[in-house]
Amino acid sequence: MRIEINTERLLARIEALGRIGALPGGGCKRLALSAEDAAGRALVTGWFCDLELDVHTDVIGNCWAIRSGHKDLPPLVMGSHIDTVATGGLYDGVLGVLGGLEVIESVIDAVIETEHPLAVAFFTNEEGARFAPDMMGSGVSQGALDLEEMLAKVGIDGVSVADALDGIGARGREPVSALAPCAYLELHIEQGPVLEAEGTEIGVVTGVQGISWTEFAIAGRSAHAGTTPMALRQDAGAVAAGIAIEARAIARDFGSPQVATVGRMRFAPDIVNVVPEEAVLTVDLRHTDDAVLQAAETRLFDTAEALASDEGCTITRRSLARFEPVSFDPDLVGQIAEGAKRLGLSHRRMPSGAGHDAQMFAPNCPAAMIFVPSKDGISHNIHEYTAPHDLANGVRLLAEVALARAGVVKPEGQTA
Amino acid sequence: MRIEINTERLLARIEALGRIGALPGGGCKRLALSAEDAAGRALVTGWFCDLELDVHTDVIGNCWAIRSGHKDLPPLVMGSHIDTVATGGLYDGVLGVLGGLEVIESVIDAVIETEHPLAVAFFTNEEGARFAPDMMGSGVSQGALDLEEMLAKVGIDGVSVADALDGIGARGREPVSALAPCAYLELHIEQGPVLEAEGTEIGVVTGVQGISWTEFAIAGRSAHAGTTPMALRQDAGAVAAGIAIEARAIARDFGSPQVATVGRMRFAPDIVNVVPEEAVLTVDLRHTDDAVLQAAETRLFDTAEALASDEGCTITRRSLARFEPVSFDPDLVGQIAEGAKRLGLSHRRMPSGAGHDAQMFAPNCPAAMIFVPSKDGISHNIHEYTAPHDLANGVRLLAEVALARAGVVKPEGQTA
């Protein structure tokens, strides 16, 4: 069953939502549970109501809208988030929500009935930019995070999640476990450069990479850069540089999809002619296979210890984050690939390097994601951009898979 | 001619001067031309006057005190500085001044007449901690720096050198070129760990290392740590780490006395899961041979360009400082070594890794330096320490060389 989607309607909604919290140079700022988020929620919920969908909000502010199916079955849920980082773009999260809404409206326009209900959802605080951890709403909904614990979390502005929810009237009545999909589909921008670089239209997302964040703190001894022979130094900065180089070497030796990033690096006392006494750096390692990720960690930690020891420095490390990889449902992933093929869209299987709400659903129901290209691979940036035809391709594929999965009820008298 | 020095008198003066600008945890802060510097100048000048020396101050505040010689000859000058860095110790600079004073007082006590006058001097703003450049007073005195230009320099507190001089009444009447020694001797703590590590009592300083300070700024592209494959990154931080490693490799490959230090390192945006868009680091290279120092610079600059190019980053560099090496007078250096031998002090020839007032005199008259051990190699630090016996060894050697160089007038009737 093929339906037509209305690309102009989709673009108009993306632009309208983008005007809420718009930043001077482009992009927008709608931090979770802020006044801008409240306005965004009102706009999107209004569109849900325009279509006479059945709108629900749960106790942590997750909101979903259901179009009834032919039978009393669990809904096929399409969703993502509408909160942004402080300098966010117009597409991250928004595409999955407004794309889902476009699918439902197109299905309504086409007067099609589905076996399973179709639903579209947005989840509270996916970004984690105001309140840590991220993926909070979907995590609470799917039992990965504890409701009371999350309500007590305090944001960067000193306000708790509970107070922020009440402050904008976003706390609903539905219990935590109210949303129980038959399957979960999330359309999202890639946020990376792979699809664009290859000229591929669709990313069929096979899972989410495991993430390991480690902070290393190295303690050496400050010394005069001119008067201290190399052999007598305990240079914390040299150890830090060596760890950064080793992180790169691990990514090179392990090969794709292993990635390694040193995002933070600081020296103290940070003076031109003083051998650094302290150095702090972070290493972000990601891989789709947890065994490989563990091997990368082991090699990194061992090398870091050896480098510090050789330099006469002490080193401590602490884990800032550790998530195991998530594998999406093979059947649903296969359906996305087949759908892309039927629609004549070039596609490749790929892991997601970033976390998404979909991974919270994966343990409880078949879940999977569709990626569309990000211009220059840029995201979490006001210059984030995906071309209209790529947005439309993603929504058409979302519709194709959603209808196949939800099951189309054939009009009476029609043969299979 | 051997004279006895009074170690207790020397220590008492070091302690007394150390109480001016004393810091709570030890050490002191007497920034150049500050109120504390003024008090320090008054104390030391008072000691000069107690000995009925002929005290002079020039237009940039350099102060020297002369004990007349047998003949109207240029003085043998012993000197250093009494200003400190913000968290300085009790010995850096002070030892050279109060050691010189101790030599003169011991010579007076021994009723010895010298052919050349003996003089002790302290020079304005050697540290450069309040006003850049450092070695300002000696540089102006010896024609390396322009008086008017230096008077116009503005310090970290917004006050000019000229106003600071007048503010504490330190501007004297002697012209810039008034101090013209027959030779210049500077006793100083090593400020490095070599003598202590070797168990050597005296460093016979052969010259001052050339210094090259370069700041590199690397511009790449910020990107998501999870979604950006390694091959598509333009990681400014990785280039910076590579340059730091190369600086180390240069020191290793060139061998002693080549040293290389990366003292400063900063990434932007400095976020765990973002590939750095910008990185800034400094490299401090030093060598006693300018040709070798130039070769080190060339290798560093070429490698930095290549690393940046390989990563798709742009790189710019700017010189923060560049001083050619200074060689001290071989005869005077030889006299110091011979004097140490006569006194039974273990000694080694070594370059100075730090800059000192002596290097400003080197182009105009025989100049050289004597080093004594620094505990743990620490200096520019409140824990800076040199043991009393090491201080005394240095002053005894200073007296030995000063008397030999100035020439002792033999009492009438005594045979040579």
UniProtKB/TrEMBL annotation, chains A, B:
Tagged with keyword ATP-binding: no
InterPro entries per the UniProt record, alphabetical: Amidase_Cbmase, Bact_exopeptidase_dim_dom, Peptidase_M20
Gene3D superfamilies from the UniProt entry: 3.30.70.360, Zn peptidases
GO molecular function, one term: hydrolase activity
Keyword NAD: no
Keywords: Hydrolase
Family statement drawn from the similarity comment of this UniProt entry: Belongs to the peptidase M20 family.
Name of the protein in question: Zn-dependent hydrolase
Organism: Tropicimonas aquimaris
